[in-house]
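Hi R.,

As promised on Friday, here is the backbone we talked about, encoded as structure tokens. Could you run it through your design pipeline when you get a chance and send me back a sequence?
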């Protein structure tokens, strides 16, 4: 699949057009950002890991009936995906209190929530992705009630599936954020809602079940070091650790070697 012009560049990925108007190429960068882009660094190899981890997770979700934009991985850093019109909303599921939830409400970190908490944020970097309600969504036409109802059901099901997947490899799914969009379905000849973006240690908080060691982007946010090793550990436990390559953490001065299984 030949890569065309760049359509969009975000904090962690670049989207390129293809000859097929309904398909695009998603390139995973090594850029690490936190606090709405206020903290930045380049973590060499992060894009490779996120590409493989997201491929694995989205493939498994599709097998469970979760429609998403992923088609296939093209190389170590790129995926072929369905082009989707993204809703300007981040959907966040929290199973354990941490991060902004503890800061906003004073809830002790590590508090296990009685049931998953679903939150919505308006996707706008300039406004720092503010928390919003369903009434905001409906009032400003960002999505319809029917669309949000479908997305809510799908999101909570994804939480159940991911929680089980990670629990099976000794990891707690603390929280995660996902995005959805509308993509063209050639079979039904109409647009349908699909899970989009990525699911990786960039978008999930993942703690080791026994030690509560953080295996996600909080290692970067909180200056814990060993960022790439945390991502590598997630990939290792998932059983997907490509060919050997050296990757280094520019900000932390550490170098490690990772091996991925060929599919």
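Update: got your reply. Pasting your designed sequence below so it's all in one thread:
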């Amino acid at each position: 699949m030949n890569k065309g012009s760049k359509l969009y560049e975000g904090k962690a990925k670049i989207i390129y057009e293809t000859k097929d108007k309904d398909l695009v190429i998603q390139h995973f960068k090594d850029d690490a950002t936190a606090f709405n882009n206020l903290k930045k660094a380049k973590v060499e190899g992060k894009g490779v890991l996120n590409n493989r981890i997201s491929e694995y997770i989205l493939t498994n979700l599709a097998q469970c009936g979760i429609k998403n934009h992923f088609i296939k991985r093209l190389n170590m850093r790129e995926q072929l995906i369905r082009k989707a019109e993204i809703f300007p909303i981040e959907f966040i599921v929290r199973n354990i209190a941490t991060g902004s939830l503890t800061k906003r409400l004073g809830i002790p970190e590590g508090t296990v929530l009685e049931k998953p908490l679903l939150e919505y944020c308006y996707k706008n970097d300039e406004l720092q992705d503010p928390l919003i309600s369903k009434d905001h969504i409906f009032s400003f036409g960002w999505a319809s009630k029917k669309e949000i109802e479908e997305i809510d059901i799908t999101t909570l099901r994804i939480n159940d599936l991911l929680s089980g997947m990670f629990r099976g490899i000794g990891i707690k799914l603390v929280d995660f954020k996902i995005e959805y969009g509308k993509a063209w379905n050639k079979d039904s000849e109409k647009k349908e809602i699909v899970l989009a973006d990525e699911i990786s240690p960039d978008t999930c908080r993942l703690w080791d079940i026994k030690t509560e060691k953080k295996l996600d982007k909080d290692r970067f946010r909180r200056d814990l070091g060993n960022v790439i090793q945390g991502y590598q550990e997630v990939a290792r436990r998932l059983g997907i650790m490509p060919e050997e390559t050296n990757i280094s953490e520019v900000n932390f001065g550490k170098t490690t070697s990772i091996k991925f299984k060929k599919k």
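One thing I noticed while checking it: The two ends are 19 Å apart (CA to CA).

Thanks again,
M.
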